[in-house]
Amino acid sequence: MKIALFSAFYPYRGGIAQFSAMLFRALEKEHSVNAFTFKRQYPGFLFPGSSQFVSEDDTADSIEATRVLDSINPASFSAAAKKINETYPRLYIGQYWMTFFGPSMAGMQKRITKSAKRISILHNVIPHEKRFFDKKSNRMFLKQNDGFVVLSDVVLKDLLSLQPDANYLRIDHPIYNHFGQKQERSKALESLKLDPHKKYLLFFGFIRDYKGLDLLIDALNLLPDDYHVIVAGEVYGSFDKYAKQIETHGLSNRIHLYTEYISDDEVSTYFSASDVCMLPYKNATQSGITAISHHFDLPIIATDVGGLKENTKDGITGLIVSKPDSSQISDAVQYYFDSNLRDELSKNIAIEKAENSWENFAQKIVEFGRSL
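and the corresponding structure tokens:
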């Protein structure tokens, strides 16, 4: 099948670009796939991080994607569709994760050839951080699709609340497998210059308020001194409130900060050094961090918000905390270590992830497209 795949791709960075690269590689094994991406993703003044692009030494998969869409230039919408239509796709697959892109992607998708079925993979529909244009943007975008792929029950519920008659495929997020192999813990800790006799809780990924780093800091304050936190990821916004919190609790020697963008070839070091991955989120849909953690067979402790418990099975692949509460988070961490759950949960993850491959994911999307 001829497929057009639109998303953030190299040289853009981040979880969506990584997801799209893995999907492209799985699809191209059996289909003719053309990748398309943004000419301009965000205007610079709207982007909260240090850069939208990978660095020169990053090992990101450099998918050759044609840059067609400017998110804030309506003149590019029809031109982008024209470029896509010139590849004569029978299936168009887009990625949708922020309402900011609703108008531009809707403007492009409404002009996609009628001979192609239009599917969008919805990473989020109703965003974590609300904006005045969310509802209108979603309405514009959703009606320009023939079907949707959703990765959690929460996103499915959000979709159906806006478009009750939507055609959809509900499928789990595949396991990321492009971050290299797990390292020996001692080697990873040595690379990070960390004491091998401590217990390490990993907070990984972009640092945003809804991800609950403040809850984890408060939880650490309730735990014994041999419990430490590794914070690895770029700050979106200001880190000032966390710095003040760390200082107030006197935790500067127990919280190890690596607050810059983590390139793909560095990811293994952080997960290999850690004893458990923490998702103390205040709200969520699903999290790509789960897929990374499972790649390294690292159990997760997550709050029961959004779709996190769909991919972290309580007592099987991790522990679920009933609500975003620092004392409950600390209790779960203490129980995890006191009960020596690491090996048992890691073995369960290894068994489950064998079924959740990118090849199976891609095949199900193509079959869904053919059924529309």
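(Above: one complete record from the training split.) The chain is about 35% helix and 20% strand.
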